[in-house]
Amino acid sequence: MNLANQITVFRILLIPVFIGLVIYYGDSARSEHPDEALRLWAAAVFGIAAISDAFDGWIARRFNQRTRFGAIMDPLADKLLMLAAIILLSFTAWRQHFPLWFPILVIGRDLLSIGGAFVIDHFAGKLQIHTHWTGKTATFSQMAAILWILLDLKPEWCIWPTLFAGFFTALSGIINLVDGYRQLQSAGHD
């Protein structure tokens, strides 16, 4: 197993650690004196996982360590970490949390993307994944919104990074739907 894949596995192993820290902090937040060390550790683990995502991608490209395992597990690790963070930070007892529409939007977009990929692959024969800057912006802005809550920054401003992330999540989902529709249309003409 090459270094890029080892970093991906490390990131996957960080997910349950992150989940535990978020849940334990949420439980402690119900008391008068929440355990702020747990909150800071959760932020640190999330930050390490986010940085390791960029690092393993750079290593895979720079040292030609691209593998089928990495192509499947790297985006899966990203989605699992992001979804765990968004769901937990929406439904646990943190002082700040995401509004209900945010996890619905993110999960809905991801489910539509997965379902659309299966439909396209079935009817068009081969799915062509086209990355778009809005998807990268959505991911980055979701990470920023998550860190905003984890670091407990200006609670009254929490809605702004969430709105920004929500806008780009919706926009990237619409672009994916249009691209999928085009692929289905072109397959129907072949």
Provide tags for this entry.
EC 2.7.8.5; 190 residues; globular; Four Helix Bundle (Hemerythrin (Met), subunit A); lipid biosynthesis; mainly alpha; 2 domains
How far apart lie the N and C ends? Answer: 41 Å
Mean of the pLDDT scores? 91
- Helix tally? 6
The count of domains is: 2
CATH architecture of the largest domain: Up-down Bundle
Helical content band: over 70%
Task: Give a concise summary.
The chain crosses the membrane at residues 7-26, 38-55, 76-94, 157-178. Its main location: membrane. The protein has helices at 3-28, 36-62, 68-91, 101-124, 133-150, 159-189.
Question: What would your notes on this structure say?
Answer:
- Its main location: membrane.
- It is found in: Membrane.
- It is an enzyme of class 2 (transferase).
- The chain is 79% helix and 0% strand.
- The mean pLDDT is 91.
- The protein has 6 helices and no strands.
- It has 190 residues and is mainly α.
- It folds into 2 domains: 1-95, Four Helix Bundle (Hemerythrin (Met), subunit A), CATH 1.20.120; 98-190, no CATH class.
